[in-house]
Each structure stands twice: as C-alpha cells, then as structure tokens.
Write a structure and sequence with these properties.
The complex is a heterodimer of chains A (about 240) and B (about 250). By secondary structure, chain A is of the alpha/beta class. Chain A is built from eight helices and nine strands. In chain A, helix 6 links the parallel strand 6 and strand 7. The radius of gyration of chain A is 18 Å and the shape is globular. The N and C termini of chain A lie far apart (about 40 Å).
C-alpha cells in the first residue's frame, strides 16, 4: 500500500507537570510493523496516545511528522488492549460503528467480507457478551480494518489473550494489516521478535533500536533467530529497570 | 411460586402483628382499626375506592411519563452542551432547595382542582432524580469508547446517539425505578391541597367524617398500587437493560 506514510515522533511528554519521558526520536517505517517494547509505566502508551491525537491532557514538547507531509487526523485507526466494543451492538454493527459515528453510509458488503476474513461468520448476530475474549478481539480487528486507514496503532491488543489465541491473532493481524504502517506497543519480547520489522526498546534511559531477526514477518515463534532476539529484548528490558 | 408464597407469608405476618397490636393495646377503632375492620371497609367501599384509585393512578402515570421524557431531554441537553450545564444546572440545584410540597398550593391556585396540578406535582418530584441519574450516566461513558470515537472522527451528536445514550441506559433505569416510588407522593400531596377526586382526597374525606377504617383502606390500596407500579417499572427496566446487552 503505497499511501501508507512513515511517521516521525520527536519530543518529550509530561502529564500535569510530571515528566513521562525525556526527548526521544521514534521513526515508524512506512508500510511496516514497528514494535515499541517497554515495561509498564515507561510512557509507551503516552507516545501512542499522542500519535492517535488523544493527547489533550498530555504536554507534548516536540513534533509529529508524516513522510508525505499530510495531516495524521483521519488516517489512523486504533486497536487497544480493551476491545471497546459496544455491548449493545452485535458483531456487524460493532464493525461498522465508525461509519455510523461519522454519519456516513455503511458499506455492508465490505463488513460482511471482513467478518468472513476474521472467521466470525457464524457469530455475526451475537453481541460482545456472548463472545470469547479472542472472538471479541477479532471483532475489534475487523472494525479496525473496516476503517480502511493507512496507519494502524496497536496498544497491546493481544496481551489479555491466552498464549494460543494470542499467537493466532498475531498471525491474523500480520496478514490483514500487510502494507499498512503499523505501530505496535507491547511488553511481550516474544511478540516484538515475531512481528517487528523495526524494533525499539523504551526504558528509563530512552529509546534503543534493536536489530530484528532477518526473516520477514510474521516469523515462526520457535525459529532460533526469533528466540535469540526475544532473549536479547528481555535482557534489555531487565537491564533498564 | 416461591415468590408468591413469600409475599403471602410476609403479608400474613404484618396483618397478624397489626391485629395483635390492636388487641394488646386496646386502642379504639377511631385511632387504629383492626385489620378485619379495614378489610370490611375495603370490601364495602370497593367501587368508591376503585374510582378514586383510578384517578390517582392516572395522575401518577401521566406525571411519570411526562417527568421521564422531560428528565431525559434535560439530561441529554446538559450532557451535550457545556453552556447548558453552566446556565441550567445551578437552576436545577436551586429548584431542589425549594420543597416541591410547598409548590402544591401555588399549582392548585394556578391550575385549579383538576388533574393537572397533581400531574405537575408528580412530574416535579421525579424530574430531578431522573435527570440527575441519566445525566450522571451520560457523563460516565467508558473512556476507551470515546477515544475510539475520536480517532474515528465521530461527530458529537453521533457519539451521543450511538455511544453515550445507549451506555447510559442502565443509569436511566435506576432513575426510573426511583421515580416510580416518588411519583405517587407528588400526586397525593397535590390531592391533599385541593381535589375532588383521588385516594388522597378520599383519605382526607374519610378522616374528616371519622371513617378511620375507610382511611386505612385507602392508604393500603395506595401502598399496594405503589408497590405494583414499582415492581412493573423495575421489571420493565431490567428487561430492557438485559435485552440491550445480550
């Protein structure tokens, strides 16, 4: 997808006078997966919120630039750890909520195709309370794709899932987000090693670039270079704290 | 079935206590009539009581409906518009400082002895709890949903319609449950101040003619009807909330 721009984040952030992180430079590659790995409380979600335009309460000193010079607003979709599905809407209506919220016409055919792609055809009329955690994140995934935005921000979307479902979701997301500029926030070194075209570790001393395994994403979780990378990332995480 | 048995059991227990109290204290019937006397008064005046009860219930139902509609509309405009919050909210709080009961004579003066002053009383008494409960619900939309909407570039009114209102339905339901109990209070006070019909009027009339057993019969009918109204509203609200999320 040639219209997926690269992003450059620069600056520091504070919330209500408390510094969250010192000035840092984060390059998010065009049309690739950039993983931002860090322990809880290190400020990685703050970076993501600023990118998503949700930083009203954050004092950001710095800039966010796109490689094509166009505005970010309206070109981003967000998928968070909590699925944020509306409990009163069924699967279909949750997926098309973006169009409804903008007052646009709903592309029902496209929504149906996405429901099929994420494997929820049999659950199309169910409400979120009737779905498992993995199924709910599939709905959130389809909703994210339904938006059709070139940039996808992922804030630990798979961290609450069990290991088997998490691996499946990583594979599904890697396939469906291909070509988009993806920024994945995670605290799971294994996830970063599997999914990152570009990997950064964020800790109290700042941002550290880590060379990812040379194979293309999505990588097998048990390949030696992936395991080695995972080990290296974990070591970096532990050193920093 | 168990539920019905429990209700019958509790009722029998209260009636026995009441009877015991009358027997033990030897209170005269014009102070505290026995349950049997009140039962006789109820059966003997069934048509009369039914007529006055239907008037009161009409006042209560219309007041409840109008108060709920007005409360919902106010809560939505308050939640949607910061200006409305600045202007209207202090007025609402101030209006609560004035006991609604104190307004009953004024309403009767303005609107006469018919249904309307009672309907307005019922409306006024439930307006604040409904507005307040629903408004709180509208202001407590889960932040993640609002973040998602913002990233999706939602329009404010669409957020209200598709997220904030449906998310606040359980809060509105608890406001309405309260309202179902409060509304009869408003109607009865309206009737006490000036009326020619209704259970409140009947109670005053019976009291004035020393028909204490009839007064108690009217009181019991009022209590039972209020309980039934509350139970129906409660059932309806639970059903709607359950349907909404499953």
């Amino acid at each position: 997808m040639s219209n997926s721009p690269a992003l450059h984040f620069h600056g520091s952030a504070a919330i209500a006078g408390t510094p969250i992180f010192d000035p840092l430079d984060l390059d998010i590659a065009a049309g690739k997966w950039t993983c931002l790995l860090g322990a809880s409380g290190v400020g990685k979600t703050t970076v993501l919120r600023l990118l998503a335009g949700l930083g009203d309460h954050i004092d950001h000193v710095g800039s966010i630039r796109t490689s094509d010079g166009q505005l970010l607003a309206g070109r981003i979709s967000l998928m968070a750890q909590t699925d944020n599905l509306m409990p009163w809407l069924d699967v279909f209506d949750n997926i098309v909520i973006g169009s409804r919220l903008r007052g646009d016409a709903v592309d029902g055919d496209r929504a149906e195709r996405l429901i099929e792609q994420v494997g929820l055809t049999a659950h199309r009329h169910k409400k979120p309370n009737a779905l498992s955690g993995g199924q709910r994140q599939r709905v959130a995934l389809a909703r994210t794709l339904m938006e059709g935005r070139p940039i996808v921000l992922l804030d630990e979307p798979f961290s609450a899932l069990d290991a088997k479902i998490r691996a499946e979701m990583q594979e599904l997301a890697a396939g469906l987000f291909a070509g988009k500029t993806v920024c994945l926030i995670t605290h799971d070194p294994g996830e970063a090693a599997r999914l990152g075209d570009v990997i950064f570790v964020m800790n109290a001393t700042g941002l550290h670039s880590v060379t990812p395994p040379s194979s293309p994403v999505i990588r097998p979780y048990d390949a030696p270079d992936v395991l080695a990378c995972q080990g290296q990332l974990l070591r970096l995480l532990r050193e920093s704290s | 079935m168990m539920r019905a048995l429990r209700i019958i059991g509790v009722t029998m227990f209260i009636l026995s206590l009441w009877h015991l109290l009358v027997v033990l204290t030897g209170l005269p019937a014009f102070i505290l009539p026995s349950p049997a006397r009140v039962g006789m008064a109820l059966i003997g005046n069934l048509e009369l009581i039914a007529h006055h009860a239907s008037v009161t219930m009409a006042e209560v139902m219309i007041g409840l409906l109008l108060g709920a509609v007005l409360g919902v509309a106010t809560a939505i405009s308050l939640a949607q518009s910061p200006i409305a919050r600045v202007v209207v909210r202090p007025m609402m709080v101030l209006s609560q400082a004035l006991p609604v009961f104190a307004l009953a004579p004024v309403l009767t003066l303005w609107l006469g002895y018919g249904l309307w002053p009672k309907i307005i009383m019922a409306l006024l008494i439930i307006y604040f709890p409904v507005t307040s409960a629903f408004f709180d619900g509208l202001m407590q939309t889960p932040r993640g949903m609002l973040d998602q909407a913002k990233v999706m570039q939602a329009r404010p009114w669409q957020i209200m319609r598709h997220i904030r209102i449906p998310a606040a339905v359980p809060a509105l339901a608890s406001g309405l449950r309260l309202a179902a109990v409060y509304a009869p209070i408003g109607a009865i006070i309206g009737e006490w101040v000036g009326a020619s019909q209704g259970l409140g009027y009947l109670m005053l009339l019976a009291n004035g003619r020393a028909k204490i057993d009839l007064m108690f019969a009217a009181l019991i009918v009022l209590a039972v009807l209020t309980l039934l109204l509350h139970a129906s509203v409660d059932r309806l609200c639970s059903y709607v909330v359950r349907r909404q999320q499953a």
